[in-house]
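## retry 2 of 3
previous attempt timed out at serialization; input unchanged, resubmitting
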Amino acid sequence: MVIYFPHWDLSKSPKFLPREKADDIPFSSRELTNILQLFSFSRGSPQAEVMEDSLRQCEFKPIEGEIKICATSLESMLDFNYTVLAAPKEISATNLVACHRLSYPYAVFHCHSTESKIRVFKVLLAGEDGAKVYAVAVCHTDTTQWSRNHVSFRMLGTEPGLPVCHFFQADHFVWISSPTS
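## retry succeeded, writing output
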């Protein structure tokens, strides 16, 4: 299987705003016109379309057993952190939190936890140039609640109910607790 991690210059990624600033900016699809004016994006522009998509993703109702937020500041992401009661080699997802970067003018992450069975792995990978890197892989063992139109099913040619595994890109991450002594 060929695994592709796009080159991502994290220094050019949008930065988190302090909570005070982020909380002063509307974050709702109902406020899209005001948000676009604030960032000087015209309606229908590529930036406006990805922002609208990000807002909609944040407003989707969680699936059964899932708790989620879209973190607009580092402080709000840390507020969403849960304690995981498992060793970090392979972790039951009962209490872990996954965060995925969304396309937005400043750093916004879609963070969620779920009660469904998820397994997380630390995987050592080697690139074509011989470089080695550890990556995080996540396996969703229960996808029965997922939409039939989920991109994973389209890519894999499968349907809800079958497991789905994927790697996390450099700007996506999983919060886990430190192992207890």
